[in-house]
Every structure is written in structure tokens, then in C-alpha cells.
# Entry
Amino acid sequence: MKKIIIKILLVLFFLVPSCGLLYLSTDSFFVVSGSDAGIPIFSASTDFKVGSAILSILLLVFALTRQGWKYLVGALLLSTLLLGLASHSVVLNHRRAMLEDQWFLYSFDVIKYDKVEGLGIDWVIKSVPLGFSITSKKDDSSVFIFTGPPPWKTPFESLLKRNYDRAIGFLGFM
# Structure
């Protein structure tokens, strides 16, 4: 009985922050840290986020019905992977002139770009399997941005053009 209570508490301590993280990752104002200068240009769909949450709950319920700890550890690892994919987003932060890759709401700086010219001028963006390759026109350095397989792949090129126009408008008000 004691083991079951410990497992249930572990699952609850995992699920409550997970649901909060998924909820916050759907709020674009929170994703861009409250800045009107940031624009999320990729985020997993809400359907994928809800599906990930439901699948995580089912995995954890299945693990609780089994006797071994290996099921619970496996379910926690798979749920963490799903949570990472569901909370992933890519943000253009025009205030910092940085393309940020966010996992679990933590931002990783990917590319610094010129605020005036925007990202599309200095960089070549190509669609590759599971994401986009962004290559510098100046020194041929390249980075990969993961956006996942086709159902939630984002048309980066059209978004960057639209966001470039919006950034120029924002810079005019600074």
C-alpha cells in the first residue's frame, strides 16, 4: 500500500507542473516573456499539446497499475519527452534581435540578427526534414531549428516576411 501511495504522489508531482507548463506554453504573451517585441513563430498545435497531456496521463495510469518501478520510470521518461515536444516554441525577440529556441519555457539563443535588416536579409532559410536549416550569408555558419514532422511543421519563410514587416513597425516606435 505504501508503494502505491508513493507512486501516486510521484505522478501528481509530475502532472501538476506539466499541465501548468503546457498551459503557459500556449500563451504567446508568456512565451515571449511579456514583451511586445517578441513574436512566437513556431509552437506545437493546441491539439498536440492536449493529446500529449492525455497520453501522458494514460501512460502514468498504466504505470500505476503495474507492479514494477520500471513501468513508472519509463512512463515518466516518455511523458517528459512528450512534454518537451509539446512545450517547444521558436520566438523572434526583436528587442534583443535574437532568434530563440524554447524548450520547457527556457530560451536558448540561436541566432543574433540585425534589428534593422531583420533575420531574412542576413540568413538563408531552407526547409529540411524535421525542421529548418538557417545559414548565414556572410560566413556560411548554419544552425538547425527543430519543428517536428509534417502535421505541425511551420512555413518559416512566410512567417519571417510577416514578422520582418512587424519588426520594422516596432522599431519605428522605439
In short: The longest helix spans residues 2-25. The beta strands are 38-43, 89-93, 98-103, 106-112, 123-128, 131-136, 142-146. The two ends are 62 Å apart (CA to CA).
